[in-house]
Write a structure and sequence with these properties.
Layout lengths: L8 H12 L11 H12 L4 E2 L1 H10 L4 H14 L14 E2 L2 H12 L2 H5 L3 E3 L3 H5 L14 H10 L4 E2 L5 E3 L19 E7 L6 H8 L4 E7 L2 E6 L4 E8 L4 E8 L2 H16 L7 E7 L2 E7 H9 L4 E2 L8 E2 L4
Antiparallel strand pairs: 1-2, 3-5, 4-5, 6-10, 6-11, 7-8, 8-9, 9-10, 11-12, 13-14
Helix pairs in contact: 9-10
């Protein structure tokens, strides 16, 4: 289908209509009181409401606390409101998702954030989120915490130690800084993609931000240090090669590599239809990578040596 020419749009609409009839939620029986709440919320002009307002509306329909929480989940599934289970019912209930996405868009595209290479102080939010035109969404100070919380939930940013500054990794400096890292003897790992989603590296930086060493982070890489493992790691992404490389040194380098790799695997698992292969570069020929799962199969079979593809000598399976 094409949004540019309209090709395939009508068949898509027909397919959606056919599928809607089979959605289980549609066959759910609702009390009339729930419908009354749904209709009331849909007619409200506010972008968001607080818990007390929602509670008063439900109380007017004689809906108890337990039913109120169940109804919130249904209303979220229907797109009437925006509510995440991780947040208490007492938190903001968003009536118009565009209110939230509009705030996030304003922040990540702001000149302030761009000029500071991804670093933002909470005090700048008022200037960024001030309505410029009549009809623009309004963002009171009381909702800044919620908006930043949502950005953190979707791994768009993280809060620095002072709790006042926010960093958006996707807007970090492009250039790689000088890295105090001795690659000799490092454990090296290569993750190769048929398509490397651009959000993978920023999300990895967000998840592991507590381990960032001396603010050594840039748009396509990060230096990590974990004192518990007494290990240092450099992680880099390469858009042209569609790869992410990991190099780890230190006393418990294998354990720290496992932590980083598991974090990366969790992020990769959230994407459909991408092929990811994990490889171990040969120590004396890093341009050749051996499939990690293949190595595990050889080890399970008890095979001691093998000849990697494109290599001109045998290697010890256990050592690789």
């Amino acid at each position: 289908m094409s949004c540019a020419t309209g090709d395939g749009i009508d068949p898509l609409k027909k397919a959606l209509s056919n599928q809607l009839a089979h959605v289980e939620l549609i066959r759910t029986t609702w009390p009339k009181s729930w419908f009354n709440v749904k209709n009331r919320l849909e007619k409200m002009e506010e972008d968001f409401i607080d818990y007390e307002t929602y509670k008063d509306i439900c109380a007017g329909e004689k809906i108890d606390r337990e039913a109120m929480e169940t109804l919130v989940a249904f209303l979220n599934d229907l797109g009437v409101i925006l509510h995440f289970k991780e947040y208490l019912l007492e938190e903001t209930q968003v009536l118009r998702p565009q209110w939230l996405t509009g705030a996030v868009y304003k922040i990540v595209t702001s000149k302030q954030l761009s000029a500071a290479k991804g670093l933002l102080n909470r005090s700048q939010l008022k200037e960024i989120l001030t309505a410029e035109n009549k009809g623009d969404h309004k963002y009171p100070d009381s909702q800044y915490k919620y908006i930043i919380g949502m950005m953190k939930k979707f791994e768009l940013c993280y809060t620095l130690e002072n709790d006042r500054d926010i960093l958006v990794p996707d807007l970090l400096e492009v250039g790689e800084p000088e890295i105090p890292f001795d690659a000799a003897g490092a454990l090296k790992f290569l993750v190769s993609y048929n398509f490397l989603p651009p959000s993978v590296m920023p999300r990895l930086i967000v998840r592991l931000h507590r381990d960032i060493k001396d603010q050594l982070r840039w748009r396509s890489g990060v230096v990590l240090e974990n004192r518990g493992f007494d290990a240092l790691a450099v992680v880099k992404s390469d858009d042209r090669e569609q790869t992410i490389t990991i190099a780890v040194t230190g006393a418990q380098r294998r354990e720290y590599l496992a932590v980083i790799l598991n974090t990366l695997r969790e992020i990769n698992a959230g994407f459909d239809k991408i092929d990811v292969s994990e490889k171990v570069p040969l120590p004396d020929n890093p341009g050749i990578g051996v499939d990690y799962l293949y190595l595990l199969r050889l080890e399970r079979r008890g095979q001691q040596e093998f000849l990697p593809e494109k290599a001109d000598k045998d290697y010890n399976v256990k050592e690789i």
